[in-house]
Design brief:
CATH class: Alpha Beta
Distance between the termini: 19 Å
Number of strands: 12
CATH topology: TIM Barrel
Number of domains: 1
Shape: globular
CATH superfamily: Homocysteine-binding-like domain
Order of helices and strands: HEHHHEHHEHEHEEEHEHEEEHHEH
Structural class: alpha/beta
CATH architecture: Alpha-Beta Barrel
Helix content: 40-55%
Length: about 300
């Protein structure tokens, strides 16, 4: 694969395929509840590498990194805040090793868990936390960041700006939405798909989208709303393998690889340029989706 930018590849008309769930995969490898997933990047790198390798082998054009909870705010819960740069650099390096020249690394940046509206953090503190993480991910070899599972526009905008002003990485930003009783999609902070996409583009995001919270069929309407608000910006979707069901106290995601793959044409028709998976999805799901995407 040439090292062109992701946006340039999208402009060529190709439907790109992203990877699937990381947490689900790591849990199968023995990640325990309450354990820091990101610490595996330095303590169990071979296991983390295996996740990325499997997604590349499944046909993913881009893979994330084990850095979703990699801000200093999240790592502080484990007493690891002083190792923020080390852990994130290692996360990106592992994914880069798996990607080689075959795939882009879209390193994961998740929410901090802090809310500006509650005044438990300042804008400068959020900006600085995202800056440290983004710079470390770039140093580790990332091609882009995937700022994901966002619910508040102010936090997302600060993450975008911190990345844009301190790195040369392409910037993807995705929000998680829930279907309200009135039939609209909103984040837990009340943000609509159109408002999220518009704000992210204005802040400097190269690609916008949605992840988690919904199975692939529900993502179609969210993408339509984003496409109407942002006619030319590339849109990425990381869909869950359906809505989880509790079986003997364990969350089970019901959608099969075939279930997800059959929705890809409708998702692309709605305006998606990049399709992939989130919670519950596996390399088998990505392989099935990739096979369909190549025909579009």
């Amino acid at each position: 694969m040439s090292r062109k930018r992701i946006c340039d590849a999208v402009k060529s008309g190709k439907v790109l395929v992203s990877d699937g769930a990381w947490g689900t995969f790591l849990q199968k490898k023995g990640l325990k509840p309450g354990e820091c997933p990101e610490l595996w990047c330095v303590e169990r790198p071979a296991d983390v590498l295996d996740v990325a390798v499997n997604y590349v082998a499944a046909g993913a054009d881009m893979i994330e990194s084990d850095s979703f909870g990699g801000t200093s705010f999240k790592l502080e819960h484990y007493g690891l805040q002083a190792r923020t740069a080390e852990i994130n650099e290692a996360a990106a390096r592992i994914s880069k090793q798996a990607a080689g020249d075959q795939a882009w690394v879209i390193a994961s940046i998740g929410p901090t868990g802090k809310l500006l509206v509650m005044e438990d953090v300042t804008e400068q503190e959020l900006y600085d936390a995202f800056k440290v993480q983004a710079m470390a991910l770039e140093k580790g070899g990332a091609d882009a960041v995937c700022i994901e599972t966002m619910s508040a526009i102010d936090e997302a905008v600060l993450a975008i700006k911190a990345t844009k002003e301190n790195t040369k990485l392409e910037i993807i930003c995705t929000f998680s939405f829930e279907l309200t009783q009135s039939g609209e999609y909103r984040t837990m902070m009340g943000v609509s798909p159109a408002a999220a996409a518009t704000a992210c583009v204005a802040a400097g995001a190269d690609i916008v989208g949605t992840n988690c919270g919904n199975g692939i069929e529900r993502m179609i309407e969210i993408v339509r709303e984003m496409r109407a608000a942002c006619p030319v910006t590339p849109i990425l979707v990381h869909a869950n393998a359906g809505l989880p069901k509790s079986v003997n106290g364990v969350d089970v995601f019901p959608e099969t690889p075939e279930d997800m793959a059959c929705q890809v044409p409708a998702l692309v028709k709605a305006g998606a340029n990049i399709v992939g998976g989130c919670c519950g999805s596996t390399p088998a799901h990505i392989k099935a989706m990739a096979q369909v995407a190549k025909t579009l």
